[in-house]
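User: I'm writing a tutorial on reading structure tokens. Could you give me a worked example: one chain, its sequence, then its tokens, then a sentence or two explaining what the tokens reveal?
Assistant: Sure. Here is the example chain.
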Amino acid sequence: MKLFLTKEVADLHTQAESGRLRRTLGPTSLILLGIGAIVGAGLFSLTGITAAENAGPAVVLSFVVAAIGCAFAGMCYSEFASLIPISGSAYTYAYATLGEFVAWIIGWDLVLEYAVGAATVSVSWSRYVVSFFHDLGFNLPARFVLGPWDTATLADGSQVTGYINLPAVFVIVCLSLLLMRGMRESATVNAVVVTIKLAIILAFIGVGYFYIDTAHYQPFIPENTGTFGEFGWSGIMRGAGVIFFAYIGFDAVSTAAQEARDPKRNMPIGIIGSLAICTVLYIAFSLVLTGMVDYHAMRGDPAPVATAIDITPYHWLHILVKIGIICGFTSVMLVLLFGQSRVFFAMAEDGLLPHLFSDVHPVWHTPWRSNLTFMIFVSLFSGFVPISKLGHMTSIGTLLAFILVCGGVWVLRRTRPDLPRAYRTPFVPLVPILGILVCLAMMLSLDIDTWIRLFVWLALGMVIYVGYSHRNSLRRHAANGTTRPPRRGTALKT
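And here are its predicted structure tokens:
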């Protein structure tokens, strides 16, 4: 079995210029796409949880450590995105450098990050929407806002079991239909939503700054309890691994390379620009939150941001924060569903998945069958399956992708130093090595159950690869000089 066949960069350039996907995204749209994916409700929830359980006020340093790992990976992503301006993100980069087998692992890994992540976020979106309507005096039927494995206690003390989480299904269907309609329309909606949520986050930071109690910063790095991950420097590292979930998303910008105008220039701007803006926001937000509320008081508090707002006389911030969270969830789902369809589009063009995933609508110029398939798949998970534990796998899956992208830049610099690169990762191999080490350290700080679930997921992917993908790989058939039935939309020369 030829597991490590690579794709030629020249073939990838031919594929990128096929014109099957419409190039409509400029640098501002790409930055907003990245911010839309990165800034979600994780900022509002994970900051308090990590401060209370792992790092105390030094959760700020956890954000910095996670940002450093992302910066190394972001520079590597930027080099690849400018060099290989095609849909597929880390999957395509791995195919060009490390071979088909590693590419499949990454592609399957991205299914975990994007599809399961979107389903998980949709359930949380549903809860906030239900709460928001409750604040306005409208109570949605409990049985139709919960999955069949979820229960809720009503005002009279009785408990009910859900039938289907209809709001979660509704938002997945609406966003998928929007993505089918076109990237320009989707980017416009994303820009509006991102603007709203950034304004609300800045309002919280601006108001909260005047209610900081500096005594809450003492000690800034609480002494370790004797258990790894509970405060001290190990707590900061464990916190970085957990809070890394809040940074997930900038890699989704690279999936838009085939729909970007002047990708060699604009892709690095979109990736690094969105990451830099979000890092500044996260550091400012965590400093204000831990300054307003003592980190001990955040333990077990499901809404530490609401507790912080109660310190101020501006209770209208409660409503604004809920709107900001809902907007945050909406843009995250939009970008995750977008990224997933583009990864599957790239994998289908290579023959590793059925050709329906690479079908492009003749008018909308979007891989609509891929969007439609994931609309059905993700909405079923959203409506019926308790997926909270699967959501924990997203961080470790993304870290694995980052490690392989960093390694891929190093490999391609050694094997093809002659290739013209519009953006060059500085200090190679130092930056890729540091990216690998920082991301690996965060992976190792995660709990064993998360690792077990990752291995189970990858084992399932190996079954699919051996049973279908390897036998149908266009690259393998080209290398063997064999033929197979024509596939619609492929640009690989055989």
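What the tokens reveal: Residues 9-480 form a domain with the Amino acid/polyamine transporter I fold (CATH 1.20.1740.10). Strands lie at 151-153, 159-161.
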